[in-house]
């Protein structure tokens, strides 16, 4: 292996003789110098635990019950991109085409042999607090994405397997290696199963990434098919089952009360819907709510390190900026927004999450808001981060509490941490995608002030208990109940009619209560709906959800009986929709799915740009611009009081440069903005709808259609999918107009 890796670097050096490496790339620092670059908050201090050559490319850390420290390593990240660029650089030419590209199949196959995982036991033999010895427990595993202590050994996430290692004879070497589970998918390297984390319920939880599959194991009675959610296992390999929520990058965090946060790139954390999967699966007629959602609206970060030059140069490249801006500003900007949030942890009662691309760790307070938890910046950190480094090679990717109560920070120390496909190809050619493959650090953050964990609240303790055994005999349903306990009770009572009615009337307004009662109400939905209609209390959302289930079943007699009692409100409207859906359309219309423009179409539109730019130099005919806007744009856009705001309102276009508006017209899919993704719905009646989603519920979705009308469809009676990065606007719209006419539309939009 070593020879092949070195050979790869010789090739890089040869290639870069033709394409010189820029002199603005950040340089690595020795651990002692890197330590000086941290901005550490008052009351805390940093120290080094381990570094290269003892460890390289560390991806996780844990301590077992004996206090022994284990690290897993992930070798070969971005290697396929480097091999692809090695080949390209032989041409001596920079690839300036604007696109996001994956490495060639040949490069991927070559890198596959060099991409692997290692597990090491670290020891401090001289007692100075710094590890000075490593013992390899396992090598050449599939890439390792996290590690946890269990059953006298350790468990590793290394897709397609979950592996157990143990030292059974006490010689500090692993003599047991067992595949507890296998069959997980192996998508791109950064999207595999990850981050084994102990939950308060005694199960070991894993982030799914994008790795689904049929799972087998020597201790399983039968194979298990996992849905696209996170999952949990018994550490002895006897059980594996799905859980609500899905880690979008890596890592998750639990509160002591059992609530869970997961991570995604552009938000500091997502709060997982507090309805465990076992309840969601109980009623096949109930639609699941969104299983996770942003816990904070604050997506800003405040790094102190300068962004890597490739990020700055991509932002300054107008075409690349527009290419990534269609996804989000955070994807296009050089810095200032979460772009790689991962590996959260709840430590000392607060929430911490890594932002490796911008060399920092973010902190937030956890705030209870009814049945959910929110994250908010800690006072005094409104415009700064808890911990940040001026060393651009510092990339925190995992956090773990030490046996002493400190915070261990796994630093994947290297030049570039971002997925190579996000980097413009001509910049990939110039910078080192794998520089730092031979480095890695573990830091320890120590709090000077002692902290004692507060006792678990009575409500949280009862929620944890109910999630395990559903024993409600010791809980008074008529007592004052905390929202989260009321929600869990709605799940735990099962199909007990009177208890469900009481909870619906008292707490029906609570977030997720409609879905919780629907999970428990299997086969008694009609009875509950009719009873609530007589005395609804606060249960309107519950009634609407029950109505949605009945409507989706399509039993005409059942729907008609309910309509006779439920004569007004949202529940009535949904029942009526269900009745209409039982009647097939006389003339069904099948609209083809919108598609992204082809390369030839884009090239043709690009040729039109100079002529329109020339026309923009002339004085605009605002009357003609208004006429064409009304005829061709107003069905989906509103400006100057004309049209329908299906897509973005255009009254603020006067603030934008005409060249930018031009690209939005000629390349609408390129300009598609977040929140305006095209939604395509095919109903069982045979109709196809294209629009923008305006609202969602567990049982229905409402679309705004061109022309401004709205349509509600039942989730269970429709195929609903999002067509991302494809605008609702007709492709080639600009082809039907003369350059002067396009210029006049732009002039009209920019007039005030």
Can you walk through the features of this model?
The chain is α+β, with helices and mostly antiparallel strands. It has three domains: 2-282 and 295-445, Neuraminidase (6 Propeller), CATH 2.120.10; 458-581, no CATH class; 599-750, SH3 type barrels. The protein contains 21 helices and 35 strands. Strands 1, 21, 22, 23, 24 and 25 form a six-stranded antiparallel beta sheet that branches. Strands 34-33-32-31-35 form a five-stranded antiparallel beta sheet. A hairpin with a 5-residue loop joins strand 17 (252-254) and strand 18. Helix 11 packs antiparallel against helix 12 (497-507) and helix 18 runs antiparallel to helix 20 (658-666). The longest helix has 17 residues, at 599-615. The protein starts with a helix and ends with a helix. The model is unreliable at 1-17 (pLDDT under 50).
Largest sheet, strands/sense/barrel: 6 strands, antiparallel
- Shape summary: globular
Distance between termini? 66 Å
Helix content: 25-40%
Whole-number mean pLDDT:
90
Q: Provide the CATH topology of the largest domain.
A: Neuraminidase
**The CATH class of the largest domain:** Mainly Beta
Radius of gyration: 28 Å
Q: Give the amount of beta strand, in percent.
A: 15-25%
Q: Helical region count? A: 21
Oligomer: single chain
Structural category: alpha+beta
Identify the CATH architecture of the largest domain: 6 Propeller
* Number of DSSP-assigned strands: 35
Number of domains: 3
Q: Which homologous superfamily in CATH is the superfamily of the largest domain? A: TolB, C-terminal domain
Low-confidence stretches: 1-17
